[in-house]
Structure formats: C-alpha cells, structure tokens
C-alpha cells in the first residue's frame, strides 16, 4: 500500500488559517493525509492543541512555523521544522515580529478607514486572541463589510502593495531567519521561492549564501511557484543537495489551496526528521 500523503505547510487560526489547530488536524485526517506540518506565521502557539488533537487519528504531526523574513522589498518566507519552541532567540524574534505586524496592521487599517467604513474592531472580530495578524485578517474584515467578495479580491485591490494603503512589517533577513531556526535545532526550508516568472525571490548568489548559513531545503511543489521557477529551483536544489518538499499551504477557507494538493516524497521527509535536533514528530 502506498504511504499516505505528507503535507508540510498548513495554517490554523493561530495565524491566518480559518480552522483551529484541532479542526485542521481533523480535516487532515478526513482528507486521508498521513502527515501534516503545522506552520503558522511567526508563532508556535498552535503546537500544543495540534499535538493533543492527533492522538488516535493516525496522523503524524510535524510542529513547525513559517517565519517572516525580508530581503530588500522581497518578502521571503522561511519554513522551520522540529525546532525547540522555547529557544530564547527564536521566541524573542517571533514576539518582535508579531508585535510589528500588529502595529503595522493598525496603521494600514487607519489609512483604509479614511476611504472605507472599517474599524480596528472589525479586524479583531476576524481573528482569534493573540493570533499573528496580517493582511488576511484585514481582508476578512473588508469582506465582512462588503468591500470585497473574498480574500483574494481584497489582496488584488485594497490590500495590494501598490494601493497606497500598504506598508511592510519589520522582519529579519533570510540569513538571520535560517540561523535562528538552525540554532534552535530546526530544519529551515525556504517557502514558495519562485512565485513570479523564472527567477526565485533570492538570487543565485543569495541562495548559495543561505545554504552556507544552514538552509536545508526548498519548497518546490507549491501552487504559487511558476513552472519555470520550479524548474530553476530543481537545478538549484540539485546543485546544493537540498531537501525538496511539496505542500498545500492550506489556509482553510482563507485560500483555495486544498490539503494534500501537493505533497512531499517520504524519503525527503525522512531527511528532515534525521536532521532535526530540537523536536520530534508526534505520531498520532
Ligand atoms: P502579510 O504577511 O500580512 O503581508 O500578508 C501576506 C499573507 O497573506 C501571506 O502569508 C498569505 O498567506 C496571504 N495572502 C497573500 N496573498 C493572498 C491572496 N491573494 N489571497 C489570500 N491570501 C493571501
Ligand atoms: Fe498565510
Ligand atoms: Fe508563505
Ligand atoms: Zn504559508
């Protein structure tokens, strides 16, 4: 019997997914997945609930995170797997990131509210207490107010970086992100690095520098990587002997991405587990 699919990138309501960690685990089980990684943006707050939820389901949980980093104007997302969630440097940096995201979201909403009838409370109503806040929650508030039909439309319009309302949040460089995850015993995998055209969001030289800093893998099978970009990433992965992953980047109802729509080869997943020293998968 072929092994059940391994999906290494999902979000819960701890960040911008629409399901609680326990609901997400149930959805993964119902979808027939064998393994899921919980990778909320800049937070490990869902690990405990997801760990309890996998018990008895037969689903293996890989605790992780999607760390926000930035290189110039480029947002670079760094997946981290099986690190120590109490690592002081990582805890401090993610707290700083969430705080910066909160104040940045407040400022974006303040600008939007000059033109649309929307308040900060509308955004809070669309998020759970302590969640990593981002434009998705503002998008949901705009949808609830009738200013956009869905999240994607809000991103294409009012929340677009060229809309005049946008500003970035603070973020460490990708190099710092890789080191933080490695120093916490985790496995860094660069997320969906080729969402525009042929070239990844980091240059060939930048890629080599990330590998020198400890980058261990690259997420290639992801719906937002372009086919040409994915082909280029395969060359880079072979050149640097990187772990290659595939994932859904599921956000519940927040995005069209479905659980298991892309998955990771079991041999590649084994490389992640073998390299991690901060935490272990939880076999449900
Ligand atoms: P932020 O980090 O606050 O700038 O928002 C970016 C986040 O919004 C990403 O992590 C995605 O999960 C989400 N996102 C980006 N584009 C879209 C879209 N078109 N529809 C829904 N969610 C999106
Ligand atoms: Fe997201
Ligand atoms: Fe991402
Ligand atoms: Zn993601």
Helix/strand layout:
Layout: E1 6-10, H1 21-30, E2 35-38, H2 47-54, E3 60-71, E4 74-81, H3 88-112, H4 120-125, H5 135-144, H6 151-156, H7 174-183, E5 187-190, H8 204-213, E6 217-221, H9 227-240, E7 243-246, H10 266-275, E8 282-283
Parallel strand pairs: 1-2, 2-3, 5-6, 6-7
Antiparallel strand pairs: 3-4, 3-8, 4-5
Bound molecules: adenosine monophosphate, fe (iii) ion (2 copies) and zinc ion (ZN).
Question: Could you characterize the architecture of this molecule?
Answer:
- By secondary structure, this protein is α/β, with parallel strands linked by helices.
- The chain has one domain: Metal-dependent hydrolases (TIM Barrel), CATH 3.20.20.
- It contains ten helices and eight strands.
- Strands 1, 2, 3, 4, 5, 6, 7 and 8 form an eight-stranded mixed beta sheet that branches.
- The longest helix is centred in the middle third of the chain and has 25 residues, at 88-112.
- The relative contact order is 0.18.
- The mean pLDDT is 97.
- The structure holds adenosine monophosphate, fe (iii) ion (2 copies) and zinc ion.
What low-confidence regions span 5 or more consecutive residues with pLDDT below 50? none
Overall shape: it is globular
Order of helices and strands: EHEHEEHHHHHEHEHEHE
Q: Name the assembly state.
A: single chain
CATH superfamily: Metal-dependent hydrolases
Decide which structural class fits the backbone. Answer: alpha/beta
**Level-1 CATH class name:** Alpha Beta
C-alpha end-to-end distance: 19 Å
The profile of the biggest β sheet is: 8 strands, mixed
CATH architecture assignment: Alpha-Beta Barrel
Count of distinct strands:
8
How many domains, in number, for the residues? 1
The whole-number mean of residue pLDDT values reads 97
Strand fraction band? 15-25%
Fraction of residues in helix: 25-40%
* Bound heterogens, unique: adenosine monophosphate, fe (iii) ion, zinc ion
Number of helices: 10
Radius of gyration: 18 Å
The CATH topology comes to TIM Barrel
């Amino acid at each position: 019997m072929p092994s059940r699919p391994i999906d290494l990138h999902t979000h819960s309501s701890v960040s911008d997914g629409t399901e609680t960690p326990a609901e997400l685990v149930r959805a993964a089980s119902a979808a027939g997945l064998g393994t899921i990684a919980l990778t909320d943006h800049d937070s490990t707050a869902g690990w405990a609930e997801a760990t309890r939820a996998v018990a008895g389901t037969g689903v293996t949980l890989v605790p992780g995170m999607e760390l926000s980093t930035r290189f110039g104007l480029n947002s670079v997302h760094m997946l981290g797997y099986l690190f120590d969630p109490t690592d002081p440097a990582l805890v401090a940096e993610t707290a700083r990131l969430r705080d910066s995201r909160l104040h940045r979201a407040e400022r974006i909403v303040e600008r939007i509210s000059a033109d649309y009838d929307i308040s900060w409370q509308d955004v809070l109503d669309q998020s759970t207490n302590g969640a990593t806040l981002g434009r998705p929650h503002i998008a949901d508030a705009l949808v609830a107010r009738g200013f956009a039909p869905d999240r994607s439309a809000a991103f294409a319009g009012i929340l677009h970086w060229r809309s005049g309302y946008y500003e970035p949040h603070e973020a460490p460089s990708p190099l710092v992100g890789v080191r933080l995850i490695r120093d916490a015993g985790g496995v860094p995998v660069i997320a969906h690095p080729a969402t525009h055209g042929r070239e990844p969001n980091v240059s060939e030289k930048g890629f080599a520098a990330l590998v020198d800093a400890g980058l261990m893998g690259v997420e290639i099978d992801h719906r937002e990587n372009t086919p040409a970009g994915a082909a280029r990433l395969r060359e880079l992965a072979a050149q640097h002997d990187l772990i290659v992953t595939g994932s859904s980047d599921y956000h519940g109802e927040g995005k069209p991405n479905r659980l298991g729509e892309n998955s990771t080869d079991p041999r590649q997943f084994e490389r992640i587990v073998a390299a991690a020293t901060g935490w272990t998968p939880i076999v449900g």
